Amino acid sequence: MQVSVLNRTMKLLVLALTVALLFTAGEALNCHRCVPKKAGGDCELSVETCKPGKDGCAAANFLRKPYGHYQKCMALEDCEILKMNAYIDIKCCSEDMCNTLSYKIHYRYQRKLPCTAVEVEQDT
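-> structure tokens emitted (124 positions)
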């Protein structure tokens, strides 16, 4: 009798764990997607569901000509590496739709502009 109860308990536990794993595996990350066809060009903002291996969202502004930008799914490790590039202002994050763009003009470019510094946030 005790073995039978133990077997049922184990089967229920395995079933519960399987169901829990199915629910967590089905939750993919969603990111804003805006990738211009041409460097510095415009793009259409959409939503991208990240594929396996892409565990983060990225939003980047290029600080040299052609001064482009993009938003997309990316491996967080790759995104963090891009932060080392002085000519890319990139935001790396891992929550749904977290990769909003922030347009900033950095201090090293202020002398080339007729105004001081400007910071504009893009609402989506």
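The two ends are 61 Å apart (CA to CA).
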